[in-house]
Amino acid sequence: MNENLQFFQAFLKNPLKVGAIAPSSSDLARKMLEGVEPNENSVLLELGVGTGAFTKFISEVVHDEKSYLGIELDQHLVKNLRAKFPGLRFMRGNACKTFALHKRSKFGKVDYILSGLPFVSMPNEVNARIFSQIEMFMDLGCTFRTFQYAHGYYMPSAIKLREFMRNRYGVSQKSPLVVKNVPPAITLTWKTN
Question: pTM to 2 decimals?
Answer without folding.
Answer: 0.88
